[in-house]
Every structure is written in structure tokens, then in C-alpha cells.
Amino acid sequence: MLTVTSKDVTKIAYDKVGQGPSLILVTGAFSYRRFPGQVQLVNLLSEHFTIYNYDRRGRGDSGDTQSYTIECEMEDLQAMIEEAGGSA
């Protein structure tokens, strides 16, 4: 497990698997990076891509803050984009 720090200092947990162009996977509202279907998808895609599979804030091994905002979710994704090479 790796972590990246979001703009509000929240730690975001992720796994990095595979090789090739970067691909960031964003799970659904009730999922996390180790959900069996998510792991299966990572295994299929990692043959062709470097997969960044992260836990959205408040899920899995990622941290959270008192007040939720969609802007925080966007900042988390921006931190992942920067970690993956800077563009999406």
C-alpha cells in the first residue's frame, strides 16, 4: 500500500500495479480498492496499463475529514493525477 497526501493533508491510500500508460481507477460510492470486482478489473487492465487503484476518502485505508465536500474528492483525484505523472 502506498499513500499520497491531498491538498487538505488527508492521506489517500492506493496500490500501483502493472506497466504501461497510467490509468487511475475511481471506485463507486460503496466500494474500495480491494473490493473483489475491483481487484479483478485491476488484474485484467494491468497487462496493458500502470494502474493506480485508490481508496476514496473515508473508505478502505484512506483518511477522511469532518466535513465532506465534492471539492475535496476532486483534490484527492488531482493528487492521484500528479502521482501518476501529471495528466489525465
TrEMBL record:
InterPro entries: AB_hydrolase_fold. This is AB hydrolase-1 domain-containing protein. It comes from Paenibacillus mangrovi.
